[in-house]
């Protein structure tokens, strides 16, 4: 489920080449390497760090080790 959520998170309908050609902030941040993939992953992590989105919050420390 997390992969589905993160797969196209904040996707604007353009590809990596567009961001690189436009010298967009994302391309600069990720050094023109897998721009969209890195942006999607970073946004998903940012969302999951919010306390209200802590899907592992109910797991014990032992259970979290599995992840």
In short:
The protein has helices at 2-7, 16-21, 25-29, 35-48, 61-64. With 67 residues, it is mainly alpha-helical.
List the helices and strands and how they pair.
Layout: H1 2-7, H2 16-21, H3 25-29, H4 35-48, H5 61-64
Can you describe this structure?
This protein is mainly alpha-helical and 67 residues long. The chain has one domain (2-64). It is built from five helices and no strands. The protein has helices at 2-7, 16-21, 25-29, 35-48, 61-64.
Distance N to C terminus:
15 Å
What would the principal axes of the Cα set say about the shape? Answer: elongated
Q: Could you give a short account of the major beta sheet?
A: none
| Count of helix runs | 5
- What fraction of residues sit in β-strands? under 5%
Average pLDDT reading: 90
How many domains?
Answer: 1
- Rg is 15 Å
Report low-confidence residues grouped into runs of 5 or more.
Answer: none
Provide the structure class.
mainly alpha
Q: What is the helix/strand order?
A: HHHHH
Q: Oligomer, anyone?
A: single chain
Number of strands: 0
Residues in helix, %: 40-55%
Features:
52% helix, 0% strand, 67 residues, 5 helices
